[in-house]
TrEMBL record:
Keyword Cell inner membrane: no
Keyword Metal-binding: yes
Requisite cofactors: Zn(2+)
Protein name, per record: Putative Zn-dependent protease
Molecular function as annotated in GO: metal ion binding; metalloendopeptidase activity
GO cellular component: membrane
Coiled-coil annotated residue ranges, if any: none
Gene Ontology biological-process entries: proteolysis involved in protein catabolic process
Species this protein is from: Novosphingobium hassiacum
Signal peptide segment: 1-27
Ranges where the LysM domain occurs: 443-490
UniProt superkingdom: Bacteria
Keywords: Hydrolase, Metal-binding, Metalloprotease, Protease, Signal, Zinc
């Protein structure tokens, strides 16, 4: 969460509207155009609108990374994007490695292609990286965006934003939409869910692009399998069967597409460039960047803002670029910020007013208090959603003369108190605590003859499920055999 003093809601609204205006690619390349030797140049209109959206996307996804890892990813992305026929020169494309701790990749018209460092770290060879980026370019080439935009504009509350909140708690009524607005995250800004047919078409195009570039087309299947394994691990870590990580929420059910992608690839072989890839991403930041705050289990710490809080028992945290989501079976929440004029009561009422475009949500009263020496204020609204009553709470803290933070939570009626321990846990951390927050990073190591899966996993910078994390990170299973000289990834401090 790299928040500033600008209103998060206002920023996301502007971004969503700008993205909704981006047209789809001007031609459909389902493989036929390239086969006929026709290359479609990117239109000036697409370039202009892509260029306008690009800085907003960078801001929403933690910014562009620089350095050797970013340069390497850029080169691979331009090579695979050229296979689509959307441009006729490497300079036609802008490929960005995003400083984001979520598993995501996407492309927009104008030749802009993106992948997060977290998704890149999950891959195990260059062909997988090319396959993921080729899949995203395939969505643009097949004009899937045009079909999504019409759906996005029909939702007046969340626009093109995705949501972490399932309909199980809130239903599909007005309060369900309010909940979607509360818990929408920047990591899902660009895309709504694609249809199964669109996903299959993008998978197939990605495989085609791999073949044209000389890569092993089976890499599309292996990276989808890694995503499925990561989804299962995330669910296990969070203690929930609801596997809805960021990439999977906009690219549904990777596990079901593994076999189809493998069938499409056939027995064709090609280059994987595994060692080149591992050398290219060595040292990449893994997980949260301290500049955006760090999630450590159920604890969130932001060294720059010098704040920390603890999620309630049974809840897990997901750190976004502009907010921190708190999720559990009995409720949802988010830590964010908004413009602050120095009056907490006004601030709380303003946050409530921004939760819905279709109905007024305002507490009967705003209470003031002090939490760990921090001036605070809160309000509660009970409302009906889908035939059930829910409680919405906004709990705000004054962090400075012009800075405030707030939780927005929603739960079934009568259960709002389950968030009280979290509200009370908000505190300022010392300079020493802030300085102690360190990032995790990828380290590529060479396996020695004495190494085992367990010994290597023991070097991971985690105290929980270190072996499972190591296996998923490296595309291995518990029965995999290591060989001396083999390169593997570790996550270290």
């Amino acid at each position: 969460m790299s928040l500033n003093r600008h209103a998060r809601t206002a920023l996301l609204s502007v971004t969503a509207l700008s993205l909704a205006a981006i047209p789809a690619a001007t031609a459909h390349f389902g493989g036929s155009a390239m086969a006929q030797g026709n290359v479609q140049t990117i239109s000036a209109s697409d370039k202009k609108q892509g260029a306008e959206a690009h800085p907003q996307l960078l801001q929403e996804f933690g910014g562009a990374m620089t350095g050797p890892q970013a340069t390497y990813v850029e080169g691979v992305g331009k090579t695979i994007a050229l296979q689509s026929g959307l441009g006729n020169a490497r300079s036609d494309f802008t490929v960005t490695l995003l400083n984001s701790p979520v598993n995501n990749a996407f492309a927009i018209p104008g030749g802009y292609v993106y992948v997060t460092r977290q998704l890149t770290a999950l891959m195990n060879n260059e062909a997988e990286l090319a396959g993921v980026l080729g899949h995203e370019v395939g969505h643009v080439a097949a004009r899937h965006a045009a079909k999504r935009q019409s759906a996005a504009t029909r939702n007046s509350i969340i626009g093109a934003l995705g949501t972490l909140l399932s309909g199980a708690l809130l239903g599909n009524g007005a309060l369900g939409q309010v909940g979607q607005k509360i818990f929408s995250t920047g990591s899902q800004l660009l895309t709504l869910k694609y249809s199964r047919g669109q996903e299959t078409e993008a998978d197939n195009l990605g495989v085609t692009y791999l073949q044209r570039a000389g890569y092993d087309p089976r890499a599309m299947s292996s990276v989808l399998q890694s995503l499925a394994n990561q989804n299962a691990l995330d669910a296990s870590l969070k203690g929930t069967a609801n596997q809805v990580p960021e990439w999977a929420s906009t690219h549904p059910d990777p596990a079901s597409r593994v076999r189809a992608a493998l069938t499409r690839a056939g027995n064709t072989a090609g280059k994987t460039n595994r060692d080149i890839f591992l050398n290219g991403i060595n040292g990449l930041t893994y997980g949260d960047d301290p500049a955006q705050g760090i999630v450590d289990g159920s604890k969130f710490t932001h060294p720059s803002f010098r704040l920390s809080f603890q999620a309630p028992n049974g809840f897990y945290l997901v750190n976004g670029t502009r907010s921190v989501a708190i999720s559990g079976q009995s409720g949802k929440g988010e830590l964010s910020t908004a413009p602050y004029s120095g009056n907490l009561t006004t601030y709380v009422n303003t946050v409530f007013a921004g939760l819905s475009n279709e109905q007024q949500i305002r507490p009967d009263a705003v209470q003031t208090t002090t939490i760990n020496g921090i001036p605070a204020a809160y309000g509660t609204v009970r409302a009906t959603s889908g035939g059930s009553q829910v409680d919405i709470v906004v709990f705000a803290y004054e962090w400075g003369p012009q800075q405030a933070f707030h939780f927005a939570t929603i739960s079934q009626a009568g259960q709002a108190a389950l968030f009280d321990p979290m509200f009370r846990s908000m505190r300022r951390i010392s300079a020493t605590e802030a300085a102690a927050v360190k990032p995790r990073r990828l380290s590529v190591v060479t396996v020695r003859a004495t190494d085992t899966l367990q010994s290597l996993a023991g070097r991971m910078a985690y105290t929980d499920k270190a072996l499972e994390r190591f296996l998923v990170l490296n595309g291995l299973t518990s029965s995999s055999r290591l060989t001396a000289g083999q390169k593997v990834k570790l996550v270290i401090y």
